[in-house]
TrEMBL record:
Residues 13-120 form the Schlafen AlbA-2 domain. PANTHER family: GLPR-RELATED TRANSCRIPTIONAL REPRESSOR, SCHLAFEN ALBA-2 DOMAIN-CONTAINING PROTEIN. It comes from Natronoflexus pectinivorans. It holds the Pfam family SLFN_AlbA_2. Gene3D superfamilies: 3.30.565.60, Schlafen, AAA domain, Winged helix-like DNA-binding domain superfamily/Winged helix DNA-binding domain. Keywords: ATP-binding, Helicase, Hydrolase, Nucleotide-binding. One of its GO terms (molecular function) is helicase activity. It comes from the Bacteria. This is ATP-dependent DNA helicase RecG. The keyword Iron does not apply. The keyword Nucleotide-binding applies.
Length: 452
């Protein structure tokens, strides 16, 4: 009689645990999802509700199952397999470690594990997973369409000269410089080299810019398809053209110019938008200037393991989407330190006594919205009209934001006004007590009703 170990199974399915009543293709899909994530185990003979059904295991059963996994996966994965005795019944445990060179496929499809379920990877996720597993990024991949004839070496020389001004020792000629930064290999150029130094305009880098009177009326517009470094200045010039500038007379030789927005923060946002854009996506970057705000939209959402809250509270490890582009821009002095940009932007707006910018994932991209203070002025006017009892400044701001967007979340408000999520919830509760707002529907999917 076989000596089968007795063991207790986990209480629930999770990111690393799956229950299956029988061995089938779904088991293999789960093993592939585990291999593409953090590894994990499938318990065969256990229902989704954790009921121990057990399985019949013959002399060749386990070998047949392992061979089936091998034949249906690429690259081949070979799971560890073990018979267990649970509640007097036989359960088979199949386990895999995280695979070092991803992604692993099952019948040509790719899966990842998210919480307690398997998700099919999109084409871009498949590419990202592979690039991460070989510790590279898309911009470091050889450009299959363009070559050295598409590069402007004078632009490379201009970058070299600018880096020398920053006290960096650069002795290389333009071609050697490109080799040094791994931007070309042999006669081949990388995606980064093309985007940074292309000699002709192209749709790959399109940025649409507009000055809006309202949501649909455009007063002025512009478009750029230049190289990335030139685009930084073009976007900043467009923004400056359409925002106010105050000249403060100091009595000194030079007067002080004060922009409607802190320009150091705007520059940081624009640089990050251009450097971290996902250039594989067909959508364009978009900059919209309104009377009371500027919206910066960029193709490419935050990485899956980073939330907006992580971003605002600096609880993340910075991993540039385009490593070669980011590396060169850092040496040029455009980036001060990886992962510190958001904190500087928030600090700049706080110092300028302006509302905190709003950061959000939207569709296939990421958007930053900055406000110039007019929204706060409107808050005071409208609340005074509607409310007899005086509200605090924070309550006034929150009330106006909710009035302008009934579907806004407490987390969104937190990012807009620079207040902790807990404090926002406390102020919302006070507005409810005063009878000014009411929540209709659940926390997710519901909306606010303004009653003041």
């Amino acid at each position: 009689m076989k000596n089968i170990p007795k063991i207790h199974i986990p209480d629930n399915e999770s990111e690393v645990v799956e229950f299956k009543s029988t061995f089938n293709d779904e088991v293999i899909a789960s093993l592939v999802a585990f291999a593409n994530t953090k590894g994990g185990s499938v318990y065969i003979g256990v229902t989704d509700g954790r009921e121990i059904k057990g399985v019949e295991v013959g002399k060749e059963t386990l070998a047949v199952w392992v061979n089936e996994v091998k034949n249906k996966t690429a690259p081949i994965i070979i799971p560890d397999i073990e018979e267990l005795c649970i509640s007097g019944k036989t359960v088979v445990l199949l386990s895999v470690d995280e695979y070092p060179l991803k992604p692993v496929s099952f019948k040509g499809r790719y899966f990842k594990r998210v919480k307690n379920s398997n998700h099919i990877l999109t084409a871009s996720e498949v590419v990202d997973l592979h690039l991460k597993s070989i510790n590279t990024s898309w911009d470091a991949v050889i450009d299959p369409v363009h070559d050295l004839n598409d590069i402007d070496l004078e632009k490379v020389q201009t970058v070299i000269e600018s880096m020398k001004v920053n006290n960096l020792t650069i002795n290389e000629d333009p071609l050697s410089f490109l080799f040094k930064y791994d931007l070309i290999r042999g006669q081949d150029i990388t995606n980064a080299a093309y985007l940074l130094f292309k000699n002709k305009v192209s749709a790959f880098t399109t940025i649409e810019m507009g000055r809006f009177q309202d949501e649909i009326t455009i007063k002025d517009s512009s478009r750029t398809k230049e190289d990335l470094l030139k685009e930084i200045e073009q976007v900043l010039d467009f923004v400056k053209k359409h925002i106010n500038r105050e000249v403060i007379i100091t009595g000194e030789a030079r007067n002080i110019q004060k922009w409607q927005y802190p320009m150091n923060a705007i520059r940081e946002i624009v640089i990050n938008m251009i450097i971290h854009r996902d250039y594989r996506l067909s959508s364009d970057s978009i900059v919209k200037v309104f009377d009371d705000r500027i919206e910066f939209f960029n193709p490419g959402r935050l990485p899956e393991n980073i939330t907006v809250d992580d971003l605002l509270n600096n609880r993340y490890r910075s991993t540039p989407r385009n490593k070669l582009i980011a590396d060169l821009c850092k040496d040029m002095g455009l980036i001060e330190k990886y992962g510190s940009g958001i904190q500087r932007v928030m600090a700049n707006f706080k110092d300028a006594d302006l509302p905190a910018p709003r950061f959000q994932n939207i569709s296939d991209g990421f958007m930053v919205t900055v406000y110039n203070g007019k929204v706060v002025e409107k808050v005071v006017e409208k609340v005074v009209e509607k409310v007899v009892e005086k509200l605090s400044d924070s309550q006034q701001k929150i009330f106006m934001i909710i009035e302008g967007n009934p579907y806004v979340t407490a987390l969104d408000i937190s990012s807009q006004i620079g207040m902790s999520h807990r404090k926002v919830q406390e102020n919302i509760a006070k507005l409810k007590e005063k009878g000014l707002i009411n929540r209709i529907g659940p926390a997710k999917g519901g909306h606010w009703e303004v009653k003041g």
